[in-house]
Amino acid sequence: MSKFKLALVQLKAGLDKKENVSRALQFIKRAVSEHQAKVVSLPECFNSPYGTQYFAQYAESIPGPTTDALSAAAKEHQIYLIGGSIPEISEKKLYNTATVFGPDGRLIATHRKVHLFDIDIPGKITFQESAVLSSGDKFCTFDTEFCKIGVAICYDIRFAEMAMCYANAGCSLIVYPGAFNMTTGPKHWTLLQRARAVDNQLYVAGVSPARDEQASYVSYAHSSIVNPWGEVLVEADETEQIIAADIDTSLIEQVRNQIPIMKQRRRDLYTLDSPLMRL
Ligand SMILES: NC(=O)CC(=O)C(=O)O
């Protein structure tokens, strides 16, 4: 059983990459000083605007200037830092990639968005990440002294199977840096976080960029933290801010004992074992 403070930084990312990174660092400092956070997450594409036209222009290799800054921040504040995501370039391919740094500043995990955001809702939104990005082909979990944590990015949240694999691997919390939009966000963003939390009886956090009405892609924002009952513990509005909540792993045990779906699974009828999760 353990308890720790998780803080999410709902950052407003603009066109100036250096400015985005430097503001992210200021917010990380505040998350620690004002909320005593032990785990901090930034949003999807925190060092660039979100959009297929931006990925190549803002892409960096990992390690690179942005992730070097994250590593130093994690070490300075002695926290686990989930670096939202950044456009990554590797061997001429572009990825939407999250990095995770431990309290010693070491890169302990990376996640390349596995499910690319390709949708077409006529008259509302058409988006095709796969026109520019390549998808990742690995899952991402990391261990802390508090619990095991899973990371996935935005559209990945729509795939219940992935969250189940993370739960099956022992995660107590799944963090989704994500930038839902003004069409799908109001309908699905919080609902999906609550659904993944209830399906798996664990904590779920969604961390979004703040809304910028002038941007070509307008983020819904509303970062939130949901408990294993599927209750929203804290939810941001659309503005730039930090939200934080206690993650208490004893509640997971309690819920799983009271509603024991984890033990009642009919594994003779279906499988949850991904080869990626044989850790
Ligand atoms: N931006 C995304 O990756 C996902 C999204 O906005 C949605 O699923 O809706």
UniProtKB/TrEMBL annotation:
Q: Is Ribosomal protein there in the keyword field? A: no
SUPFAM superfamilies linked: Carbon-nitrogen hydrolase
Fetch the CDD domains from UniProt.
nit
Kindly give the Gene3D superfamilies that the UniProt entry links to this protein: Carbon-nitrogen hydrolase
Query: What molecular function terms (GO) are annotated for this protein?
Result: omega-amidase activity
EC identifiers of the protein: 3.5.1.3
Kindly state one GO CC term assigned in the UniProt record.
mitochondrion
Which reactions is this enzyme annotated as catalysing?
2-oxosuccinamate + H2O = oxaloacetate + NH4(+); 2-oxoglutaramate + H2O = 2-oxoglutarate + NH4(+)
The UniProt entry's sequence similarity note says: Belongs to the carbon-nitrogen hydrolase superfamily. NIT1/NIT2 family.
Put simply, this protein is called: omega-amidase
Species the sequence originates in:
Ramazzottius varieornatus (Water bear)
